[in-house]
Write a structure and sequence with these properties.
The chain has two domains: about 230 residues, Roll (T-fold); about 90 residues, Orthogonal Bundle (T-fold). The chain has about 350 residues and is α+β, with helices and mostly antiparallel strands. The strands form four sheets. Strands 1-2-6-7-10-13-14-15-17 form a nine-stranded mixed beta sheet, sandwiched between helices. α3 packs across α8, α8 packs antiparallel against α9 and α9 runs antiparallel to α10. The two termini are about 30 Å apart. The radius of gyration is 20 Å and the shape is globular. Bound molecules: adenosine-5'-diphosphate and magnesium ion (MG). The site of adenosine-5'-diphosphate (ADP) has 23 residues, from α9.
Length: about 350
Amino acid sequence: MKHYAYLYIFLLVFLCFPLTGCQSKNAVPYQTTNIAMGTTISMSLYGDGELSSTGDAVLDTLREIENSLISWRVADSEIAQANASAGSVDGFELSDTTAAYLETVLEVAKNSDGALDITLGRLSRLWDIGGSNPQVPEASEILELLADIGYEKVTLSSNTLLLPSNMSLDLGAVGKGIGCDEIYDLLRANSSVNAATVSVGGSIITYGSKPDGSNWNVAITDPRYDNSYLGILSLSGTNYISTSGDYEKYIMEDDMRYHHILDPLTGYPAQNGLISVTIVCDNGLLSDALSTACFVAGYEKSLELLKIYDADAIFVDENYNVYVTDGITDAFTLSNDVYTLQ
Ligand code: ADP
Ligand code: MG
């Protein structure tokens, strides 16, 4: 995983845009970089008082979500317990929060015709791209697991989740976005923070307005060249930005790139002509869910999906063309001449 790439985004956002004018007004009062949820967390907090304790609380929140909710590796997380209940007639009783998140995820699965499908847990573990034993599995193994995948086989009624046997959920596609939503709640409840940006791997929240009223400048990672970026998104206020790409976790075998975003229809890494998708919208879970869904669905189908959620996107295709949706055309500046803005 390219931890350093995220660090690089962070440095770009905060260092590459030296703020002219009054320094003291513009200086970021609290900045830190840490590891949580298996990725780099970079944050900048603006406000008064004990900002470091808020910074610690942000990290605690992310670790809590990871351990008690999302991680299938942590035996008593809700998802691990739900997975262990697969096949039981009673199902598993989720917390209100998790049930609400799952409801949204299942809705995106439906609206994307299964491009996003969190029921592929056994398949993503078989590939293990980004894990300790990544491999290109035998076609027969993939076929066997495909039979048990399908968001439409999940039943969620009020908080009771019923999973058929042999099904295992993987919330990897939405965890960081959920993290950003929880960070929003935390910051809202904390009167000492007026503005903030936190990047949780490829998912970012910009919160509130900087003291000098200037926009947030978010650098979008170059999907092909390390230590470079594609362009800058200039946004005001609270936004959620999430990027999915084939460059984050992958293995090369026989000149083929096998990356971590799987097409639930084929069981193989998605190949619909895109190498990166960035989503901008007003919800963290949705930004993350849609970035994965659009990456799998491809450019044309994604446009329909984005309309449903009033979300915007930057697509990069394999021929290095960049497509930006109307809502953020003015906000995005391409700054890399390897790519062509269409
Ligand atoms: P990242 O987590 O690296 O930022 P994504 O948000 O795109 O990237 O999520 C990718 C992760 O989601 C994979 O590592 C895997 O755990 C899971 N996943 C892969 N393909 C899909 C898919 N089609 N639908 C749902 N989850 C997926
Ligand atoms: Mg995602």
